[in-house]
Amino acid sequence: MEDALLLHRLQFAFTVSFHYLFPQLTMGLALLIVIMKWLAFRTGNELYNNSARFWAKIFAFNFAIGVVTGIPMEFQFGTNWARFSVFAGGVIGQTLAMEGVFAFFLESSFLGLFLFGEKKLGQRLHFFTSVMVFIGSWLSGYFIVATNAWMQHPVAYEVGANGNLSLSSFWGLLFNPWIGWQYTHNMIGAVVTSSFVVAAIGAFYLLVHKHEEYGKVFVRIGVLAGVVASILMVFPTGDGQGKNIAFNQPPTLAAMEGLFESKEGAPLVLIGQPDMEKKRLDNPLQVPRMLSFLTYYRWGAEVKGLDAFPEKDRPTNIPLLYYSYHIMVGLGTMFIALLLAATYFLWKKKLYITRPILWMLMLAFPFPYIANTAGWMTAELGRQPWLVYALMRTPDGTSTMVSAGNTLFTLLGFGGMYFLVGVLFLFLVAKTVNQGPVAALKDH
Amino acid sequence: MEILWFCVVAFMLAMYTILDGFDLGAGILHLFVAKNDDERRIVLNAIGPVWDGNEVWLLAAGGTLYFAFPLLYASSFSGFYLPLMIVLWLLMLRGLGIELRHHLNHPMWKTFWDALFAVGSILLAVFLGAALGNVARGVPLDDHGYFFAPLWTSFTVQPEAGILDWFTVMMGGLALLTLANHGANYLAMKADGLVQQRSRKIASFTVWGVLLFAVATLAAASSIRPEIWNNYVVHPWGNIFPLLGVLGLAGMVYYNRTAQDVRAFISSSTFIGGMLASTAFGLFPNVLPASTNPKYSLTVYNTSTQGYGLSVGIVWWVIGIVLALGYFTYLFYSFRGKVKLHAEGY
Question: Any chain B CB within 8 A of the CB of A422?
Fold first, then answer.
């Protein structure tokens, strides 16, 4: 039984983590493409239109891979988490169905028009289609976050006679207070990813002295969008999410922060390794009393540690949760530092020739992907041991009819397919980048 | 309310089959009607702007199934675990086949993705038909409403049937022929020249296969589960659905002969819609019959969620579908007429 549980969890975690690598670029890039099309409109400069066309190429296959890796997610609630689906389906089925009916139809219809219809539609309508794709993809993000937010913070439900939940308030579900910060934090995270990707390719073009006019456009857009987004990730959205967790999931806060014992004036840990046997952090670097202040706005406030909660209610993998959280925050901090430096050089009109910064921008692009993934791992590991917070524990949600053997088979299948898809994706991005903006249009 | 949502889910699955059905049909025909790069590009451009939106009907139907009938969603998806996973992988291969082909201008790259698009589409059609066959035949549900069916056992229908037995494989064959015909009609509508000619030819002989397999599966289904006729006896108005199916089939033959491609396409759409509606009508109130003990069958009543969710759902669903139909109309209208090859697109 343990085998099967671990495999169901691994399969979901693996498939959703791989899947989300693509929508984060889709959603962020959709916004940046709208900005490029708008700039083309405002300035009449064809550079911006060609930039939009270049990024639309990458957008297209990124979107396609997002779609094909996303379909298994909707089905996986049923295939591997049947008991959870029976328990909670009456509620979260609504948001998942709305995602299909409202967001997917919108983004896929207009994507067809955006990718295929530029000549047919003319510039005004084409710009409109790019806005619709942006809205569709961000709406999709909203419904998924609403689903996860409900699992983290269940609202708007009632318990039926058979123990299963059903919806009791439509607007309560859609405006779950948890969603506000989770959604904004998540979407701005996607903007960070796309900003770095755009800036990285721009930096590459400037460093190799090819397509330099485009390099400048990409670097400028990427750095400016990125610096705003990275700061917003810490405050207010990261702080908001942190407070969500602190006030509604206190064992999670303790685990994330490596706080083994409750403390008044609890420190904020910067680095340190949790030792689960000795129940302490090894070689910690901490800011005294800062965690109390950030959480409660009082330096001497008491923050509950892991010792305040029974073991069965603590997250099941505390070290992984702790590291995910710290990796996310550490990277987020570095993003701000790098982008502030880049903004400074941009302001001094020297960025395009400051090679060390360009090198860093070029090499930095994988890290937002890691940060976004670490962030989601924090959310999901943090919710443990609960599948639906305080209502259903994770081991109670699996599909009992699906054996460990079957799950292992499909996990390996996904692993293999996704590895190949990942290689293909990198190959296609490299090829598109190498061709460059205007040449890429003359493909046929 | 349960009856209404049964109709909604059936409608969405029918829309999926009619729309993505012609994408799959184009894939089934791809290697047969398109013999050079230009012709291959014509096939892909015929479905290019619309295939993704068409596929969304499956996801929207799945999501709707989830909230309206959670026990059916959970039981059928976990019970049909392996074939469902295989369908997911095939959807991946089909989608990548369409989208990645034009990103590299090398013949071997294109041949590879053409093959994946074609094989993926063929296998998908067969599996989707088999899936419907499983629902019609019934599965070994237990008293909790769950089951697990292996891919195959002995290929016999009872008692411990696998996903693939002679009946469901036959249904798979029916689906393959139907979607091949449907795709052929679509390509005849959107293409000209040799692609159109070859498509019309394929439509002309696949229709007889459809007729043959339809009669055979109907006879087989009647002997396996004679209950499918009960609703027709009690509510004779239901005969409108099989009638639509027959009319569609007649149109598929006639309009193909007279080279009226749009009407042929409407006919195959009517056939698909009519046959799926007939199946749903015969199935009701069951949504997944039990081959073990009839009282274990899943019905609209024992799998649905509570009234509030069902009531509030219909409000947003109607709004959403009206919007979606609006987008689709705009999309299909924008790309009306014959496919023209140019730099944009596939």
Answer: no
Chain A residues in contact with B321 by the CB 8 A cut-off are: 101
What is the number of domains present in chain B? 1
Residues in A touching B60 (Cβ below 8 Å): 97, 100-101, 104-105
Neighbouring CB atoms inside 10 A of B326's CB total 12
Q: Find the closest chain A residue to B150 by CA distance.
A: A406
Q: What are the CB-based long-range contacts (under 8 Å, 24+) for B301-304?
A: B301/B2, B302/B71, B302/B145, B303/B69, B303/B70, B303/B71, B303/B72, B303/B75, B303/B145, B304/B1, B304/B2, B304/B5, B304/B68, B304/B69
C-alpha torsion sign, points B30, B34, B35, B38: negative
User: Is residue B340, in this structure, part of any structural domain at all?
Assistant: no
Return the CATH number at B141: 1.20.1630.10
* Distance from C-alpha of A339 to C-alpha of A350, rounded to nearest angstrom: 14
Find the mean pLDDT for residues B188-212: 96
In angstroms, rounded to a whole number, what is the distance separating the alpha carbons of residues B291 and A345? 72
In a domain, residue B189? The reply is: yes
Would residue B223 count as lying in a domain? yes
| Tokens coding A250 | 């206190």
Residue B248: domain span: 2-334
Q: Average pLDDT for residues A262-277, to the nearest whole number?
A: 92
Place of tokens 């759409």: B269
Give chain A's mean pLDDT.
95
pLDDT of residue B188: 97
User: In angstroms, rounded to a whole number, what is the distance separating the alpha carbons of residues A237 and A192?
Assistant: 13
Whether the complex's predicted ipTM is more than 0.90 is answered with yes
> Kind and range of the H or E element at A268?
strand A268-275
Q: Which helix (H) or strand (E) holds A273?
A: strand A268-275
B222 CA: distance to closest CA in chain A (Å): 30
Residues with Cβ within 8 Å of residue A142, at least 6 apart in sequence: A103, A179, A183
Would B343 be classed as within a structural domain? no
